[in-house]
Amino acid sequence: MDLKEYEPIIENVMKQLCENSRFPQTANYKQHGSLSVYEHSIDVARMSCRIASKLHFNVDYASLIRGALLHDYFLYDWHVRSKEHRLHAFSHPRKALQNACEDFELTPREKKYYSPAYVSVNAYTTILFGKLDCMCRGYILCAARNATVKCETT
After folding, report:
1. How many contiguous H segments (helices) and E segments (strands) does the chain have?
2. Is residue 25 very low, low, confident or very high in pLDDT (cuts 50, 70, 90)?
């Protein structure tokens, strides 16, 4: 599967997530440098598809993309000191899962993407997200940054 094949899936999943949820709020929170959580999540989704395709993983791309887009769905500014997210690196997957469960019906597979500190021996995609999250944080500008679908943000 190449970019032409999974980009429409990313667009479709993003449209679904933008409807009747708090997903558009992710554009308001900075993740790494000047990159928003929204942009970071799109990068992780694209890179997840690229790597799954290159490694010939047999994955459900819609679930992979949805998990990637929601993996940092914690909905707070982790740069502002607070007791609620003092150990952000370890607590944010749990908060992201809680928020995602409030806003969406997740499949059991999608719930695995939120394992604390990205450790799960049962899901290749959980490990994939953890590695990609680090790559995107380190390189910030992953290939193909231009999202063709944008949520309406207020």
Report:
1. 6, 2
2. very high
